[in-house]
Amino acid sequence: MAETKHPAYTKFKCWMTENGITNEDIGKIIGKSRFGVSQRINGTGPDFSAEEVRKICLQYGISADAFFVANKVS
Asked: Which residues contact 12 (CB under 8 A, 6 or more apart)?
């Protein structure tokens, strides 16, 4: 099992499934392979960059806060 480098984007992954969006679809938007997107979503590869998040949010009309920002209460 791959080591987690950052929290997985579980909510985003569920949203993708519900909307029929594939890792390949996201990859085309951010210029990464399907595998590269999978690693980002599952937390085993590099995190999404701010530019990648911006492109995804603009393409699908979603909020970065809803899917990409960890809401931690201290």
From this structure: 41, 67, 68
pTM of the predicted model as reported, rounded to 2 decimal places: 0.86
Task: Tell me the CATH number at 30.
Answer: 1.10.260.40
- Assess whether pLDDT exceeds 90 at residue 37: yes
Of 40, 33, 31, give the one whose Cα is nearest residue 10: 40
Tokens 């987690």: give the residue.
Answer: 4
Asked if the structure places residue 48 within a domain, the reply is yes
The total of structural domains in the chain comes to 1
- For residue 12, the SS3 value is helix
